[in-house]
């Protein structure tokens, strides 16, 4: 009788261990699946002429996917659907650096020309006009040096191609 009770206890413990292993395996697979899905990018096509909604769905809501990636990776995806006509640099103030120099820390991209942006802004200042891309430090391009040279719109993607993305938002 003692032997029979001992065998039943061992079987019960063995079943519990197997069940616990299954639960742990399930949790590990679930967590890894969530982590993988968080880093996957899903493309949504432009609906009609709503460029702001397109940018919101594809880039702002999925910015975690782009964090740490280069600007060229983001820009290559955007230009498949949208013709970017205007770039505006974002610069730091001189008080943020040790030497009192302002640096370029991001770019605002627009599907509108500079003239269209100005006109639309004055008509409705709440209208979305730009996709703003903020870069990770260190910032290496001095703002005034950058502004003093003539840059064409097609130069911007080449100049900032290797900069890593920190944040994306609409403005």
List keywords for this structure.
4 strands; 171 residues; alpha+beta; 4-stranded antiparallel beta sheet; elongated
Tell me what you see in this structure.
The chain has 171 residues and is an alpha+beta fold. The chain has seven helices and four strands, in the order ααααββαβααβ. The chain has helices at residues 2-38, 51-60, 63-66, 71-81, 114-123, 143-148, 156-159, and strands spanning 86-91, 104-110, 131-135, 165-170. Strands 1-2-3-4 form a four-stranded antiparallel beta sheet. The chain is elongated, with a radius of gyration of 26 Å.
Instruction: Quickly count the helices.
Output: 7
- Average pLDDT for all residues: 86
C-alpha Rg (nearest Å): 26 Å
Helical percent range?
40-55%
Order of helices and strands, N to C?
Answer: HHHHEEHEHHE
What's the arrangement of strands in the largest beta sheet? 1-2-3-4
Quaternary structure type: single chain
Secondary structure class reads alpha+beta
Our measurement of the CA-to-CA distance between the termini, rounded to an integer number of angstroms, reads: 79 Å
Beta-strand percentage range: 5-15%
Q: How can the largest sheet be summarized?
A: 4 strands, antiparallel
Shape: elongated
Low-pLDDT residue spans: none
Number of strands: 4
